[in-house]
Design a protein that fits this description.
Number of strands: 9
Number of helices: 17
Structural class: alpha+beta
Helix content: 55-70%
Distance between the termini: 26 Å
Amino acid sequence: MRFEWHLSWAYWRGRRALRGGNGFISFIALLSVLGIALGVAALITVLSVMNGFQKEVRNRMLSVVSHLEVRRIAPPSSDDAAMRARIATHASVLGIAPYEPMQVLVMREDILRGALVRGVDPAQEGEVSTMFAALPELLRRSLEPGRWRVLLGRELARSLGVIPGDRIVFMAPDLGDQGAGFMPRLRQFEVAGLFESGHFEYDSTLALIHIEDALRLNRQDAPTHWRILTADPMQVRQTAAALAGRLDERYQLRDWSQENRVWFEAVQVEKRMMFIILTLIVAVASFNLVSMLVMTVVDKRSDIAILRSMGASRASIMRIFMFQGFASGSLGTLLGLGLGVAIVASLDAVLRQLEKLFGFEVLPKGVYLLQRIPTDMHAADLVQVGLIALVLAFLATLYPSWRAARSRPADALRHA
């Protein structure tokens, strides 16, 4: 196969010393390499940005929601303390804290909004919530039992038109036997402060009160929910399976991926569709290899005839052009991988220059809470993109190489 490699390398470089050298074919070969490189770089950049946004949203979500949540579905008992102790001894559990959720209507003059109220223990909530732990200590200590104070998400406060110091009314349903049917419970709260998690869904619906106030409003004696912080939220299902053996039928265990399953499934579908769409760019660039090889076969038909007359087999002729096309595809893939990694590494600087050049903001500060576009490059994505590009380049070489191997030496020499 030594002469096959030699001819493939010579044809690929477009050496003029070979009979029938054509500079235009070399130009087409260059375009095919650049097309594959740009397609691979675009695919890597988009996947890294999508991974970055997914990671950013997930981290902000996990600063508010529970990694794991335990719910008691039986009447309260002294076993709650024993349950907490059994869970806390697990190696993956970093913290556990009680909370009491409830849904209410929030009223402010003529404005009415639905809200998810979470009764928390300020002394323990910081162990399971990075968002709460990041709040100023004075704001956390403002949640005192019996003072009926509330911390509102910034977007919820904005929709209600309130600021710290204002008063709002919670209307909670009471499904007990009141004789007259449904009787809502009303309670006035003072807005002690605002918080911002960076996740619009929670900033626009979540309110925090002291857990004792929540129990009074719910007319309960003890909390029914506990939040658990784990060492690795991505391995939460394995942790949940291990903890399930430490709980009896009175407790239910739920992880954060189940609570936000729809959102994560939508993100995965979007990522897969974007991957397929951008892969088509690499496929289109691979078509240039077909054009380049077809032109090379036509241009080198006399060389093919001479090689066949000297005893070269059809398989040898086919390998010559397959090697040539695959070399272009491999070079384009390597250039694309390098270019993609470079773009992702310097994406902030590139975007700042584009913003200065065209006078626009990629992430307007009034809309997004991000100071930069997040990126998260995975080695698995690089390998997957590289393999797909190489496979497409290889497939693009098959038909032209087969046509070259099927050409008849006599016909080529007759028209040479």
